[in-house]
Recover the amino acids of this structure.
């Protein structure tokens, strides 16, 4: 198993750092999947209700100008590593004014991901910061649990409003209730609603636009104004929103009701088509 | 004793107190002929800090009322710090600060003259004490380096604020290396990230040390002096010797000087003080800046070989090579009569689970038989007597 990559472009480094910061805000440990064309950050939260699971995909060539990897074997040319998210974001933090950043899989006393940063320095000599992030190699038999979440044929799919606005609304709502209802329809309308014994507050967003859906046929007879709703834990939603530091070019929310009655909400945030982050939140319907 | 500090120096004094508060819980205030000294020591006696403010630092400085003996006092650090707690406030509103100690009263009076006629008076109780002295001599240390505090401040940036210890050493090509130090954990599943900063010789105004030397000391305590030196824009010198011998950190300008003396881990306590990367097996020098550009050697990056290496112990990459420095613990300061038993260092084996500083040896609170050459004058080295007797 081998891996080495290098970033020299400041903007790429910046973007990569922000993604890593977002991951660090979402979960303590994360899985890094390295394949020939992509780099993925995967968070698996297997809690029964309202768990967050996140999948982030980066097209390797959009970030690294050097990228070499050799997976576990020829048929399984991938590497799955588990590491503490904060370590990576802390390592990247020192790379703010870097000339170059190198990442390598090494084993110094223990297997680690070595992040080596060459800093711009006023004096003629270069300064080099090296971080050895301890990692755990994930065996092949566990790879099946770490695949991209698929939400086929959502019932409703809608573009989100400006995330910053949405975040400030949800933050205020957090003080009133722990559970939030998200309603959306195919007419570009999204509602964020909280209900308590004393008060019910709804924020309406209009004219948001809906992405084109895959299967047109099923939707011709659908009522465009019918709202699909899902209950989620506000804190989980805020966690997701708080992590969004990158201004996305596209942010959308897909809602799906499975045959079993389980509802899933998928948030997908894309930036310039270089990175794609998908977050899945499960439904938490409160039975009264 | 009476001294008056005015203008920007009030903030400087405040910053010094903040620095000292990182080390110990008690402040020893001693007005001397050559200035006001503020000293402290930590509870395990593994760190000592001292600031000496020259008479010119003050608008008015009177060490003692004529005919009276020089007074010394020991105050709770928390109390003294509370006067200077908000540096922003000191800068904005305090015009003068007057510190006076009257032999008759049992209070140290610190008076802040602020804007708009506001006067804040703090009456702090104190204890009489012996002079707190540490035996150390920067000139006797074979190795030293000096750099602007800013450079050292940038050098410790990669380390998290919570990091306790750091190893400083000289690597190949006369590169100065700072590496985070973590104690060997019994539970080796939770490994900590190891960070290393490598600077070139050019960043230092003076570098007098051979490749391969390294010491490990408490970063948190060092940060205390570093933040002061950075704010005052001073150069910081580090004088050090073999592992186990205390390291001396000094700053100096025309109006003040500061000394922080920190114990260092001795060879018997530490395993990984050598900064050599295990991939290279060179007997001398041991210290390698593995971040120096070298042809990437994939053989060492192969994880699979790690799995194999776990079984064998012959010449594997995990072996640690000790520094080539002599392993003798150095001359032990002979126990001197009159030292309290509290001066004896805690044996590492009897204090499992205690924080690292307790393992450091308090060698420098040593003997009066050793030549005394402390900057504070000729007074003999004495342990501070908890009874407060003369």
């Amino acid at each position: 198993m081998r891996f080495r990559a290098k970033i020299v472009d400041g903007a790429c480094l910046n973007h990569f750092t922000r993604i890593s910061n977002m991951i660090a805000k979402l979960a303590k440990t994360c899985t890094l999947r390295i394949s020939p064309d992509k780099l993925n950050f995967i968070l698996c939260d297997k809690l029964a209700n309202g768990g967050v699971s996140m999948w982030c995909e980066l097209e390797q060539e959009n970030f690294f100008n050097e990228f070499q990897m050799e997976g576990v074997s020829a048929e399984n040319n991938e590497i799955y590593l588990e590491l503490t998210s904060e370590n990576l974001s802390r390592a990247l933090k020192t790379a703010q004014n870097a000339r170059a950043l190198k990442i390598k899989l090494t084993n110094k006393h223990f297997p680690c991901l070595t992040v080596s940063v060459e800093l711009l320095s006023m004096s003629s000599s270069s300064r080099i910061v090296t971080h050895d992030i301890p990692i755990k190699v994930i065996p092949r038999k566990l790879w099946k649990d770490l695949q991209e979440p698929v939400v086929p044929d959502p019932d409703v799919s809608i573009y989100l409003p400006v995330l910053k606005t949405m975040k400030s609304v949800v933050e205020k709502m957090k003080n009133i209730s722990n559970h939030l209802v998200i309603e959306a329809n195919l007419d570009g309308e999204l509602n964020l609603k909280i209900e308590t014994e004393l008060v019910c507050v709804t924020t309406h967003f209009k004219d948001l636009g809906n992405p084109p859906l895959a299967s047109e046929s099923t939707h011709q007879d659908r009522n465009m104004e019918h709202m699909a709703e899902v209950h989620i834990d506000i804190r989980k939603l805020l966690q997701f929103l708080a992590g969004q530091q990158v201004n996305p070019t596209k942010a959308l929310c897909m809602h799906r009701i499975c045959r079993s009655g389980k509802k899933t909400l998928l948030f997908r945030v894309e930036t310039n088509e270089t990175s794609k982050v998908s977050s899945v939140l499960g439904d938490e319907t409160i039975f009264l | 004793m009476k001294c008056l500090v005015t203008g920007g120096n009030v903030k400087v004094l405040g910053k010094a107190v903040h620095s000292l508060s990182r080390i110990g819980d008690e402040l020893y205030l001693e007005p001397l002929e050559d200035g006001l000294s503020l000293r402290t020591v930590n509870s395990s006696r593994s760190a000592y800090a001292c600031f000496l403010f020259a008479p010119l630092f003050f608008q008015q400085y009177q060490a003692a009322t004529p005919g009276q003996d020089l007074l010394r006092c020991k105050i709770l650090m928390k109390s003294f710090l509370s006067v200077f707690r908000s540096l922003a406030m000191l800068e904005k509103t305090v015009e003068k600060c007057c510190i006076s100690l009257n032999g008759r009263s049992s209070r140290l009076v610190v008076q802040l003259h602020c804007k708009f006629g506001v006067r804040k008076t703090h009456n702090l109780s104190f204890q009489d004490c012996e002079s707190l002295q540490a035996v150390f001599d920067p000139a006797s240390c074979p190795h030293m380096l000096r750099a602007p505090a800013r450079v050292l401040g940038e050098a410790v940036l990669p380390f998290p604020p919570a990091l306790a210890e750091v190893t400083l050493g000289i690597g190949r090509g006369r590169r100065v290396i700072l590496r985070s130090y973590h104690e060997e954990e019994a539970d080796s599943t939770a490994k900590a990230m190891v960070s290393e900063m490598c600077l070139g010789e050019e960043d230092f105004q003076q570098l007098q040390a051979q490749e391969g030397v390294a010491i490990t000391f408490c970063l948190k305590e060092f940060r205390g002096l570093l933040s002061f030196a950075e704010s005052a824009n001073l150069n910081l010198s580090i004088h050090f010797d073999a592992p186990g011998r205390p390291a001396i950190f000094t700053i100096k300008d025309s109006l003040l000087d500061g000394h922080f003396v920190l114990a260092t881990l001795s060879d018997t306590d530490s395993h990984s003080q050598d900064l050599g990367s295990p991939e290279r097996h060179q007997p001398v020098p041991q210290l390698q800046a593995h971040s120096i550009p070298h042809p990437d050697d994939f053989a060492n990056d192969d994880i699979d070989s790690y799995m194999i290496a776990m079984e064998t112990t012959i010449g594997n990459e995990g072996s640690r090579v000790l520094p080539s420095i002599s392993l003798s613990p150095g001359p032990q300061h002979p126990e001197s009569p009159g030292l309290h038993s509290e001066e004896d260092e805690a044996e590492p084996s009897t204090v499992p689970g205690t924080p690292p500083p307790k393992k450091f040896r308090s060698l420098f609170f040593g003997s009066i038989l050793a030549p005394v050459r402390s900057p504070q004058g000729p007074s003999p080295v004495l342990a501070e007597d908890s009874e407060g007797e003369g």
Summary: Chain B has six helices and 19 strands.
